[in-house]
Recover the amino acids of this structure.
């Protein structure tokens, strides 16, 4: 094995096609060339006849027109690229006029790697700004065709033209011109002339490249009965290109318009920033390199050796022969891939083997070729197991290598390195959730206020954008029925016994972000009297769209708001303390504090609430007897003293109204000691309950009756639910499950435990291994 890594950072486009922004024709100043008169004969066979009829279209139209999908965009771009690995990492091709940083440097390097260009003059230059002649275009196409699996030896002899003007062209170009003409890929300009020295036009270029793809195995290009191009994975499902350029349709025959439209949807060409294509303009050699690499992307061509490309979490691995073998696919090659969080840097043990921060993507063992690993197929490619966003997290690094069964990867061995970022998901919505604008747990609102209810479509993973059209072109709609029930005697209306005094039905449409909203309100029927109540209930049904997207909580008793004129009163008390506090020594006393927040039945802060704080330890000796009053934000900070060792203290806040039942709230204070490494435990701890976490201080509180603190940092190893993890994921899962545990209290039946090895609390440079089990309650 070669002892080096291939960093994706040195190979900017190993994850997909060369970015089109790098090769866009628009920004190049030499693009605005002299206009040519007439139009070129671009196609052959069934297309030739159709060239004589100009397509109808609005004269002077100048923008890309959207098709039936109402969106002008290349819908058939290649997901992969031929310009990866050594094709863009290879040594400088040696063109003195293509310096690093040149707009077309990478695509020129790519076609030079594959031998599609040999440069100009003595081969030391490429002449990126020079126009491409028709003879040069033929040679580019001829060399590319051989690499793309196109057989030019056959063809239709009737398509051959005895061009009278190519006798002085060099032999390879003559062969290319004849082979391309015989196969209907690039034809002459009529009157028995090919015009090899003339500049190729943008329309001729587009037609020739699409014709080449029509001959390329596996490319998504097909022809209909009229010889026009259709695009799609198979001929049975292929459709005519939807989008088109106004200046092409207004001035060119139908076949030319169809070919240019196909080139656009295939991502081969983009047009100019003003929406025009300029079909009669010439093409520079730099632009042509970009067009050709985009065309190569639709073929199975890949560089020599192993490369890998990621498309939305699916990694496709390719293995090819060397240049002498024309980069032929290599089948039956076993491939292994392993992954780690992108933030991880320590991946190997002292013996040079993969450590626990690394996990396998495929196969049965990490960093080892085994019988469960995938092998390349006859096309030299294989796909790895899909990496979903929940596995990718904030980003992964994946290493791919190949070898024989039983081979193990060691530090310093060669691997293809690939960055995998979270991807947008096109998954359909799987459920609908309902929420309102009231604070959590609050169901009451004052008369005169408005409550907004939101129905949110949700995917299993990824963001929820683009879900408004899940029900088809017109989107998803819901029917909402709103009923209002009233009482004037100070009691709450009962929808099961009382009759509604008002009913309304409305239709709400789901927006692009997957949300649909409607509002609830109620007026006070008699503002001069007290005791008025209005209960507003609502039901949601699917008027249009997938029936399984009707919100699950179909019981109308769960969906209501009580509008009332009742006076505000303390409803809840929330007690907050520090995540942990260091326990004082024996007989010592330390000061502490708790913050109490009082809110009313409407979820608003309640001021001037007299709060008494009590502790369940020390006979309440350290807490003040006097009331402390909340401020305008409903909060009050109450200091107290603590005496004792490591313990869990429950602090209870009480508000006693003038009349009525006292309101209480409680919080826990964790008085901790550090978990110590001893000769007996050797720095290891088996599964122990997690009580709290302070992510700002990188500290976890663990234990049962006696809480202890454990420190961690980014240099440690983390495993979360049997998967190697980053520190960020470790903290995220800790916080998520801990919140659920605190909320559910004794009803929590999930798991939240921590184990560790090699931990030394006195050595900040120590590298420990933490294993977190964090699962939510099962229903």
């Amino acid at each position: 094995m070669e002892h080096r890594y291939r960093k994706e950072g040195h190979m900017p486009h190993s994850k997909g096609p060369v970015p089109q922004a790098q090769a866009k024709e628009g920004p190049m100043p030499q693009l605005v060339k002299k206009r040519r008169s007439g139009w070129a004969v671009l196609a052959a066979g069934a297309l030739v006849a159709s060239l004589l009829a100009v397509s109808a279209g609005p004269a002077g139209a100048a923008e890309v027109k959207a098709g039936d999908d109402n969106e002008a965009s290349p819908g058939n771009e290649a997901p992969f690229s031929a310009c990866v690995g050594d094709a863009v990492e290879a040594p400088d091709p040696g063109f003195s006029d293509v310096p690093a940083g040149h707009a077309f440097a990478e695509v020129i390097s790519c076609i030079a790697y594959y031998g599609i260009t040999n440069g100009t003059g003595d081969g030391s230059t490429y002449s990126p700004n020079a126009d491409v002649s028709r003879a040069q275009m033929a040679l580019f196409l001829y060399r590319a065709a051989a690499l793309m699996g196109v057989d030019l030896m056959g063809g239709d002899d009737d398509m051959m033209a005895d061009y009278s003007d190519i006798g002085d062209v060099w032999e390879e170009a003559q062969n290319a011109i004849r082979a391309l003409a015989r196969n209907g890929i690039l034809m002459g300009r009529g009157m028995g002339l090919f015009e090899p020295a003339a500049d190729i036009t943008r329309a001729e270029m587009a037609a020739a490249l699409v014709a080449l793809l029509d001959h390329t195995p596996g490319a998504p290009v097909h022809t209909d009965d009229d010889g026009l191009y259709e695009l799609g994975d198979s001929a049975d499902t292929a459709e005519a290109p939807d989008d088109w350029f106004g200046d092409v349709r207004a001035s060119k025959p139908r076949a030319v318009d169809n070919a240019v439209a196909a080139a656009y949807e295939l991502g081969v060409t983009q047009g100019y920033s003003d929406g025009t294509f300029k079909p009669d303009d010439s093409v520079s050699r730099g632009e042509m390199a970009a067009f050709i690499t985009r065309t190569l992307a639709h073929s199975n061509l890949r560089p020599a050796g192993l490369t890998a490309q990621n498309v939305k979490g699916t990694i496709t691995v390719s293995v090819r022969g060397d240049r002498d073998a024309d980069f032929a696919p290599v089948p039956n090659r076993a491939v292994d891939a392993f992954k780690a969080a992108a933030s991880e840097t320590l991946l190997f043990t002292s013996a040079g083997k993969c450590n626990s921060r690394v996990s396998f993507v495929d196969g049965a063992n990490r960093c080892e070729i085994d019988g469960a690993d995938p092998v390349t197929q006859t096309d030299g490619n294989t796909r790895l197991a899909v990496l979903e966003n929940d596995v990718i997290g904030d980003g992964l690094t994946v290493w791919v290598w190949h070898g024989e069964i039983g081979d193990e990867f060691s530090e310093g061995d060669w691997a293809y390195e690939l960055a995998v970022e979270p991807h947008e998901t096109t998954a359909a919505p799987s459920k609908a959730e309902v929420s309102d604008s009231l604070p959590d747990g609050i169901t009451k609102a004052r008369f005169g206020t408005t409550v907004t209810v939101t129905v949110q479509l949700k995917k299993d993973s990824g963001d929820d954008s683009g879900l408004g059209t899940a029900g088809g072109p017109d989107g998803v709609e819901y029917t909402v029925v709103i009923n209002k029930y009233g009482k004037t005697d100070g009691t709450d209306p009962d929808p099961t016994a009382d009759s509604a005094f008002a009913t309304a039905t409305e239709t709400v449409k789901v927006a692009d972000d997957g949300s649909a909203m409607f509002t609830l309100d109620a007026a006070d029927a008699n503002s001069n009297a007290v005791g008025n109540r209005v209960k507003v209930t609502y039901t949601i049904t699917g008027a249009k769209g997938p029936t399984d997207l009707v919100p699950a909580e179909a019981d109308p008793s769960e969906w209501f708001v009580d509008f009332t004129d009742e006076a505000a009163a303390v409803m809840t008390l929330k007690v907050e303390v520090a995540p942990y506090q260091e326990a004082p020594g024996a007989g010592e006393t330390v000061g502490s504090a708790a913050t109490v927040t009082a809110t009313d039945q409407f979820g608003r802060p309640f001021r001037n609430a007299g709060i008494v704080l009590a502790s369940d330890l020390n006979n309440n000796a350290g807490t003040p007897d006097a009331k402390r009053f909340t401020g305008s934000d409903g909060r009050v900070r109450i200091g107290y003293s603590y005496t004792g060792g490591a313990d869990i203290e429950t602090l209870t806040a009480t508000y006693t109204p003038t009349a009525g039942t006292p309101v209480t709230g409680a919080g826990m204070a964790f008085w901790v000691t550090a978990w110590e490494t001893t000769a007996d435990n050797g720095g290891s701890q088996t599964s122990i309950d997690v009580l709290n976490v302070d992510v700002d201080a990188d500290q976890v509180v663990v234990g049962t009756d006696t809480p202890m603190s454990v420190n961690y940092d980014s240099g440690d190893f983390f495993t979360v639910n049997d998967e190697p993890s980053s520190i960020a994921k470790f903290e995220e899962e800790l916080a998520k499950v801990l919140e659920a545990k605190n909320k559910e209290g004794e009803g929590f039946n999930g798991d939240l435990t921590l184990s560790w090895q090699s931990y030394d609390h006195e050595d900040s440079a120590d590298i420990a291994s933490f294993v977190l089990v964090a699962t939510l309650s099962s229903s």
User: Anything to note?
Assistant: The chain has five domains: 5-296, 305-420, 431-564, 570-672, 675-775.
